[in-house]
Amino acid sequence: MRLNDAVTVIQPLDETAMVAARERQTRLTKPAGSLGALEGLAVRLAGLAGHCPPPIPKRPAVAVFAGDHGVHAQAVTPWPQEVTAQMVANFLAGGAVVNAFARQVGAAVTVVDVGVASPILATPVRGGETVGRGGELWARKVRAGTRDLAVEPALTPAEALAAVEVGISVAQDLVVEGYDILVTGDMGIANTTPAAALIAAFTGADPADVTGRGTGVDDATLAHKTSVIAAALDLHRPDVHDPIGVLAAVGGLEHAAIAGFILGGAALRVPVVLDGVIACSSALVAAAMAPYAVGAMVAGHRSAEPGASVALSHLGLAPLVDLGLRLGEGTGAVLALPIVACAVRVLHDVATFDSAGVAKK
Questions:
Q1: What pLDDT was estimated at residue 123?
Q2: What is the 3-state secondary structure (H, E, C) of the chain?
Q3: pLDDT tens for each residue of 201-237
Q4: Is the dihedral of CA 215, 220, 224, 229 positive or negative?
Q5: 3-54+347-356 maps to which CATH number?
Q6: What is the pLDDT of residues 275-292, one digit of tens each?
Q7: pLDDT computed for residue 129 by the predictor
Q8: Average pLDDT in the 241-247 region?
Q9: Residues near 171 by Cβ (< 8 Å), separated by ≥ 6?
Q10: 61 in Cβ contact with 49 (< 8 Å)
Q11: Comparing 3-54+347-356 with 60-340, is the CATH topology the same?
């Protein structure tokens, strides 16, 4: 599916299904509103599915999009760039936190090389992944890392579009394989720098308010990182009415691919659970391309990175989990999966006052 095709088919949530879900909530054996945000989530998922109750998500798939960044040359992080490829190998071996969390909830893990600069010491495969062990590596590289956004556009528009369409195709492939809820993951040393730039561009926020410590930089590096982002925005002056142009100027390959992944899920009416600041920045791109795509987005958690909260507020999304996480990989979103499933299961399993013979107030 191409970008234009995906954007064309993304439609608003089904209002009839949402009305039915709201009405059913009032008849269940619980005080009205007593499940808080879970009730609204279940209503939205009914609207996404187009019927009430919506299907209970049972086959989650995490897609970890990996890429490198030319802005690494600006010393915005103390971690060497080679760590991106090393962590990809760790995902494939099943040794990362996202693998542990995925095993706990029965999620598959797919790692998508959309722009890793260093060689990956693993063999690309496209089948035979076993849930509970490592993950598959899907070789979808657009280019070996971005250019340095501090001195030139990170990508060409054609490269940005290609990365978006990688994400759309990954979503489509996973849904065809029977996965019914998608989870965003990411890996890329220095990727919180383009994430902050994207969030500042799309929300109009000051770079100082959306730039965080990423992997834990000190005060001096944080100040330098913020200044690099501010200077890049001043250099490129990205136009939010041209989302591909914004991605090309200050984005990353994994950011673009995650934006496409969200669009692909929305086009197929499958929920997409957002992870941290990288996913939130990508969600802003997706929403700029197709505003109705927000209907498919579930905010898995509130990242400790300040830009994530700014982005979620701009999107009108409330996070399900707030544990001060800032790891990435998809970890916070995976933790939210049982909550999403429980929100839907209420509509399936909880008795009504009439059926249970329980008196209303």
A1: 54
A2: CCHHHHHHHCCCCCHHHHHHHHHHHHHECCCCCCCCHHHHHHHHHHHHHCCCCCCCCCCEEEEEEEECCHHHHHCCCCCCCCHHHHHHHHHHHCCCHHHHHHHHHCCEEEEEEEECCCCCCCCCCCCCCCCCCCCEEEECCCCCCCCCCCCCCCCCHHHHHHHHHHHHHHHHHHHHCCCCEEEEEEECCCCHHHHHHHHHHHHCCCHHHHCCCCCCCCHHHHHHHHHHHHHHHHHHCCCCCCHHHHHHHHCCHHHHHHHHHHHHHHHCCCCEEECCHHHHHHHHHHHHHCHHHHHHEEECECCCCHHHHHHHHHHCCCCCECCCCCCCCCHHHHHHHHHHHHHHHHHHHCCEHHHHCCCCC
A3: 999 999 999 999 998 899 999 999 999 999 999 999 9
A4: positive
A5: 1.10.1610.10
A6: 999 999 999 999 999 999
A7: 41
A8: 98
A9: 63, 182, 260, 261, 262, 263, 264, 265, 267, 268, 270, 272
A10: no
A11: no
User: Where in the chain are the domains?
Assistant: 3-54+347-356, 60-340
Of the candidates 39, 129, 159, 329, the residue annotated as catalytic is 329
pLDDT at 127 over 60: no
Average pLDDT over residues 144-164: 98
Q: How confident is the model at residue 133 (pLDDT cuts 50, 70, 90)?
A: very low
60-340: CATH topology: Rossmann fold (3.40.50)
159 belongs to the catalytic site: no
Largest interatomic CA distance in the chain? 69
